[in-house]
Specification:
globular
Length: 239
């Protein structure tokens, strides 16, 4: 299926991965504040129910985010790299107020949002689920996770504001529209993944690493951090 060409169009896989990552991240953000409200509240509270099980629910949403986030990150850094920071982004930021300035700022916010979510899932994995129920509120990783919450909330807000600024309501609606073109059909996803795997080898990796850019460095950092988060989680389970 296809919509009118005059309307913004987003690849279906981007919409699925972006939607799931965004949904789980927002639910994790909401339950994170609820967890803070129940167990901490030193910097302000609101009258939420004192539901102690909320910490486990927050952890579940955090886990779901960590499961889907690597797929979204890989897509964003490759098929969606035009939406992220570019090699000439800093020079374009000097053209204040012009359309290219807003588009460049949008790309920077998108990139920062990925980094913020990486910080959030990693700092969350570094925490111990027993700390808060036992009243242990002064661990450095707990403070880091609180800071990650503030950073992520700010990035989500900026991401929405910048999306509205550069694309308006049509851009927002294009991310939740389920109409898709034939080339984006889910029936082709398995074939595309198989083709990608067949082309994936050491030579391709060496060629990719031969010309490092800022975006590639960010991608490597994000993916290594996600892998470390999983390794640390598994080590905790075994220990």
């Amino acid at each position: 299926m296809s919509g009118k060409l005059s309307k913004p169009y987003q690849p279906l896989l981007l919409r699925v991965l972006h939607g799931l990552t965004g949904l789980f991240a927002i639910l994790a953000v909401i339950t994170a504040f609820w967890t803070y409200d129940v167990y901490d509240g030193r910097w302000g509270q609101i009258p939420l129910p004192k539901w102690t099980e909320i910490e486990g629910i927050h952890g579940t949403f955090g886990l779901w985010t960590l499961l889907i986030f690597p797929l979204f990150a890989i897509y964003a850094f490759h098929r969606g790299q035009s939406r992220l920071i570019q090699s000439d982004s800093l020079s374009k930021l000097t053209r204040f107020g012009q359309p290219i300035w807003w588009y460049t700022l949008h790309r920077l916010v998108n990139t920062l949002s990925i980094l913020a979510l990486t910080f959030a899932v990693y700092s969350g994995k570094m925490m111990n689920e027993k700390w808060l129920p036992q009243g242990e509120l002064n661990h450095s990783w707990y403070y880091a996770h609180l800071i990650s919450w503030l950073v992520l909330v700010s990035c989500i807000a900026l991401h929405l504001l910048m999306s509205i600024k550069v694309g308006g309501v049509p851009l927002i609606l294009s991310m939740i529209n389920w109409r898709f073109r034939s080339k984006d059909s889910p029936n082709l996803w398995r074939k595309n993944i198989a083709n990608w795997r067949s082309d994936f080898d050491i030579i391709m990796i060496k060629q990719w690493l031969s010309s490092l850019s800022l975006l590639k460095i960010i991608e490597i950092f994000v993916l290594i951090t996600i892998v470390l988060a999983w390794i640390i989680s598994l080590v905790k389970e075994v220990g």
